[in-house]
Amino acid sequence: MAQDIISIIIPVLNEAAIAKQALTQLQQYSNVEIIVVDGGSQDNTVAIARQLGVRVIVIAGKGRAAQMNAGANVAQGSLLLFLHVDTQLPPNFITLVTKTSRQPNVIAGAFELAIAGQEKSLRWIEKLVNWRSRLLSLPYGDQAIFITQQAFVDLGGFADLPIMEDFEFIKRVKRKGKIAIVPGAVTTSGRRWQKLGVWKTTLINQLVIIGYYLGISPTKLSNFYRSRRKK
User: What is the pLDDT of residues 108-142, one digit of tens each?
Assistant: First the structure.
């Protein structure tokens, strides 16, 4: 297993509109392995990735957790970085990830979050997310979580959940070692917040988290989340 490679695992589903730009940006870097794991797209997402020469795995209808696990299973790097296709890494991400991973007791990490968009409310969301991440060591999936491959294997990967798979995974990581937040931000698309409005989207997200803590079935939480997102 190559010690200097960062394997970037990107779960996708119907992302043809943004896939080419996202993948092209990553291809400029050396010592990275890009793995796209498609969840059964009905558009040209897979064709676009393959035309760019990117490795593609298709695992239809099994959810994002299964997609990320499938990508990790074939990854060659000593570090795994799970990236949403609408999230852009900072230009110096390789240095940040490498240095952070070498810190004592650190087995995983993530970036601070910046959200594309001019709304002032988005700046508040960024502050809250970054405060939560640093104070509680609780980053979410859109912050480009990375972890050593060995630790990922030892933990058994992501749990087979229809939602909250990143939250549940991070909780297990915290019991095994330190999660570091690097001094740099990824920039994620504001489309999730802009579709329904910043505060309504935030409320839905928080209700799902509360429901998870209360022991409500992840399937019910997933149905609730997706039904509210469609409105």
Answer: 999 999 999 998 999 999 999 999 999 999 999 99
**Three-state SS sequence of 100-167:** HHCCCCEEEEEEEEEECCCCHHHHHHHHHHHHHHHHHCCCCHHHCCEEEHHHHHHHCCCCCCCCCHHH
pTM of this structure:
0.94
Domain membership flag for residue 45:
yes
Dist. CA 181–CA 74, nearest whole Å = 26
**CATH no. for residue 178?**
3.90.550.10
3-state class (DSSP) for residue 216: coil
Three-class DSSP category at 61 = coil
Count of the separate structural domains present in the chain: 1
| 85, two tokens | 């296709």
Residue 198 vs residue 184, higher pLDDT: 184
